[in-house]
Structure formats: C-alpha cells, structure tokens
Specification:
alpha/beta, Nucleotidyltransferase, domain 5, five-stranded mixed β-sheet, 37% helix, globular, binds 5'-O-[(R)-(carboxyoxy)(hydroxy)phosphoryl]adenosine, binds zinc ion
Length: 363
Amino acid sequence: MRILGIETSCDETAAAVLEWSPSARPSGPAQSGGGAAGALRSNVVASQVDLHARYGGVVPELASRRHLERLGPVIDEALDRAGTEFEAVDAIAVTCGPGLVGALTVGVAAAKSFALALGRPLIGVNHVEGHIYANFLEHPDLALPAVVLIVSGAHTDLLLMRDHGVYEMLGRTRDDAAGEAFDKAARALGLGYPGGPAIQDAAGGGREDGVTLPLPFPDETTLDFSFSGLKTAVLRAAARPAPDGVERRRGSTAGIAAAFQDVVTRVLVDKTMRAARRRGARTIIVAGGVAANVLLRSRMTEAAGDLGVPLRIPPLALCTDNAAMIAVAGAYRLSRGERSSLRLGAYADLDITAPLPETQAGA
Ligand code: KG4
Ligand code: ZN
C-alpha cells in the first residue's frame, strides 16, 4: 500500500510517500508488537521559516497563502522522489488538526480532492499523534503502554498511550508550550527565530557566568507544566536598569541560554520519568520539535537508562513537522479499517483522547 501523507498545520508545507504492508503490522493489542512494516520512499518539507522570521513568529494568513502556492509542487516532488505516479497512490493521510485553521484547510481540501478524484481512501490524522508515530517508522513493534512527552511549538503534553490510537492525558502545559518558551526566550535575548535552535546554539557548552533561573513549576503533586514565568526570569537575568537608567546586561547571552535550557529540560525529564514510574511504562516516547534539542535528548537518554525503560526519540529530521509521520500514523489507522469521510474538516483544536471527527472506526 502506497500512502501519500500531507501536512500543512503550521509553517511547513510537507508531503511524503510511505510504502506500507498492512499484513506486517501488529494485530490486536500491541503489547508484543509485530514486524517492520513501513518504508519511507520520500519526505519533502518546504519550510516557511524565512517568511515568518522577520515577524518573530508564524503569521497565519501568510502561512495559508504560502501553503496554497507550495503544496502542489511539494506533492509533485514527493511523488517524483518516490518514483511513483499520482494514480499509484493507494490512500491519502492528511493532518486535520490541531493547528492554524486556514493552514490546515489547504492540506485537507487538497487531500479530499485527491481522494475523490482517485477514488482512494482518505484518513485524517491528529498532528500530535503524527509526532508520536514518527517513532513507529523505525520501531513498529515498540512495547505499549508508553508514556509520551510531546514537546513542540504548540504543545507540551504528557500522555499515556495504552494501545494504538488509545490515549490518556496525564499532564499538559497550563500556559506556554515548551517550544513557545524557547521562542520567547530567544526573542528576549535578541536571538533568531525559531528560538529552539537559536538558544541551543547560543548556549554552546557553557554556563560560564553562573546564571541561575528558577525551575519552572516543579510542583510534585501534578504532571502539568507551566513555562510562562520563564520569559520574565530571562528578561530579568538579561538586563537590569542601572541608576543612570541605562539597561546593562547582567548574565551573558550564552550563560542565560544555557541556564534556560538547563531548567526547561530538567523539568521535562523529571515529570516524564515520574509519569513513567507511576504508570509502569514499557517505553518512553519523546516527540515534537523540541525533541530535536540535544541536551533534552541526552538527559532523557540518561534518565530512561537509570529507570531501565527503553526510550524512543525520532531522528532529528522527523522531530520537527513533516508528512512522513502523518503517513505512518495514517497507515496504522487505515490498517485498523478506519476511514475519514469527505466531510472531514480542519480543526484548530483537536483532542487526541477523543475520536477523530468524520471518521469511521474499523470493523
Ligand atoms: O513540532 P514543531 O516543528 O511544530 C509544532 O507543531 O509546533 O515544533 C516547533 C518548535 C519551535 O518552538 C522550535 O523553537 C522548537 O520546536 N525547536 C527546538 C529545537 N528545534 C526546534 N527547541 C529546542 N531545541 C531545538 N533544537
Ligand atoms: Zn508539530
């Protein structure tokens, strides 16, 4: 089965072709897993980062317009690289939320017209579930239940994945997402956009000037997160008004960036491990754009090793938004017999623990 994946939820226009053999995927409860089932034939991402960088964040109207211009060529390129024809696509998987509604609409409308024109099944995919399934490309048989940390520009969710498509929310951010915190801190420090890579580069190896920032919301009674206070702490560490009214830098940019990364990753690791211990996780999954962070990856690896639970984090290219992860999540849903109708819409808010709208469960 050849699945075309489409992703336009935010600021990346993406298409991918996945070759999938349904018979090889685990059937029934996924505890014991199954064989390798998917091969990625192409994965094309056209980033809009340059377009939005000058505004310091994604401008929704510009994003939608750029998706409209780029999606056609991006799909053509994905098919080309996969060495396949449009007519040879067996199913279409598309992100239908959560995200920017105008941006999502471009991908969903395209996917529905292809499904209709080709007479092929359509499957909607929750973007957050897509991030999780980036891990199932290389590890189709990873053991469940898994504790999942989704850390992106829009989400910081701790989930229990009981089985394929079955999730329980354990904790989430009460305000800013972790990626958003990186972006705001980078802006406060006068670094570039997106903030995650900028902070990581600025931090380098060092905490040479000994800047310390408060641990954000370490509260042990909850698995929720809160990052909104950090921006103020970063601003305070960066500058203080002197008696002559001139702002002077206190900590160096490198020192503050390093301290910021230190406290954010520490709280993410602590709460993920606490959840994994409490819920008897057989795998720990970390996914989303912030999972590209080198310090987070190494700290998670160490902590999961101490706990003796296997850790899965996607390769860097599959951490940030892409369509390969959407095709993989779609493949699992299609294999269970799920189909979305042509009434599928674009949903700004979409709860991963609830059934997907306009989608029929399998037999
Ligand atoms: O998953 P993603 O590509 O888009 C959303 O679904 O939001 O995540 C984007 C977020 C941005 O906030 C970006 O700053 C962050 O991921 N990010 C990073 C790194 N690379 C991207 N954060 C920390 N360290 C990184 N290396
Ligand atoms: Zn994302």
